[in-house]
UniProtKB/TrEMBL annotation:
Protein name: Phosphoribosylformylglycinamidine synthase subunit PurS
Pfam family, one: PurS
HAMAP family documented for this protein: PurS (MF_01926)
Pathway info: Purine metabolism; IMP biosynthesis via de novo pathway; 5-amino-1-(5-phospho-D-ribosyl)imidazole from N(2)-formyl-N(1)-(5-phospho-D-ribosyl)glycinamide: step 1/2
Alphabetic keyword roster: ATP-binding, Cytoplasm, Ligase, Nucleotide-binding, Purine biosynthesis
Major site of localization recorded for this protein: cytoplasm
Underlying gene: purS
Subunit comment: Part of the FGAM synthase complex composed of 1 PurL, 1 PurQ and 2 PurS subunits.
InterPro entries, A to Z: PurS (IPR003850), PurS-like_sf (IPR036604)
Amino acid sequence: MARVVVDVMPKPEILDPQGKAVLGALPRLGFSGVSDVRQGKRFELEVEGEITDEVLAEIDKMAESLLSNPVIEDYEVHVEEHSVAEIAQGRTS
């Protein structure tokens, strides 16, 4: 099985109150050097079979019609080789 990831972020011109709240909390928690925070969504889709251009086109349709709001959000679709958790646990074979 392959994993396809859809990252959804607010468009740059859209206000991001959650990101601003995180940005305000960072210095209070002792973190410095961060000048902006944008909060988005990540969808991980486990796909059976081979990842073809047709499969990616179908996932792009999913992202546009269900996973994002194209009026206020941008999205990006990409195939993930291994998850961060798998790499950390040494399960990348």
